[in-house]
Amino acid sequence: MQLIFAGKAHPADEAGKHHMQRIYKRALDPMFGGRVAFVEGYDLHVAHFLVQGCDVWMNNPRKPLEASGTSGMKAAINGTPHLSIGDGWWAEGFNGANGWLIDGQADPRDHGAQDWADVQSLYSLIENELVPAFYERDAKGIPRRWLQVVRQSIRTVLPRFSTRRMVKDYVENVYLPALRQETLTR
User: Fold this and answer.
1) Between the chain's N and C termini, which has fewer beta carbons within 10 Å?
2) CA–CA dist 97, 148 (Å, integer)
3) 10 Å Cβ neighbour count for 130?
4) 27-66 pLDDT, tens per residue?
5) Which residues are within 8 A (CB) of 113 and not within 5 positions of it... i.e. 6 or more apart?
6) Which residues pair with 83 in a beta bridge?
7) pLDDT digits (tens, 9 = 90+) for 81-92
């Protein structure tokens, strides 16, 4: 397994910046023998290449700090299964068959307990679901269970997370109600 980290901490997020620095130092550590990498300068262009060459897209912010997760949406639409906590887009996008939900059960106000519960859930998912699904092959060498998740990802994410749907939701849930309210107050 190779872990590739990319992303940026918010400029005001000192803890996030220190965390990214620790990951970067680990990526340079010979002990990890090239198994941990950190991609600097993460942007749309870099994301384009990561989406194409990635087997699983993992996003694990601490709830409720995920803004949206558009990179994860893009990966899922392109057939890369998603692995994340239930925050941002994945809270709405996960259906039980199109990826994996890191669902550590702990008091969310206790960050240490929540982190521990999330990491235990993550390790369990990797060991008991992801790895077996990826490496289990039929007589022809095809990972049937893995491909089911890939297909579900494309089938379920694409229609729900698009510009068309976003504009429709804004019109129906924001603009039209605001227009009606404006009309009633006149």
Assistant:
1) C
2) 8
3) 21
4) 999 998 888 888 888 887 888 888 877 899 888 777 777 7
5) 106, 107
6) 58, 100
7) 999 998 888 988
What ranges do the domains of the chain cover? 1-42, 47-185
pLDDT computed for residue 100 by the predictor: 97
State both tokens at 67.
Answer: 């803004």
- The answer to whether 76 and 103 have CB atoms below 8 angstroms apart is no
Residue 8 confidence (pLDDT) above 80:
no
Q: Do 87 and 58 touch, CB atoms closer than 8 A?
A: no
The residue assigned the tokens 């379920």 is 156
Give residue 80's identity as a one-letter amino acid code. Answer: T
Most confident of 23-27, 119-123, 160-164: 119-123
Q: Is 29 exposed, middle or buried (0-12, 13-18, 19+ CB in 10 A)?
A: exposed
Q: What is the residue-wise DSSP string for 48-83?
A: HHHHHT-S-EEE-PPTT-----HHHHHHHHTT--EE
Tokens standing for residue 167 = 């504009």
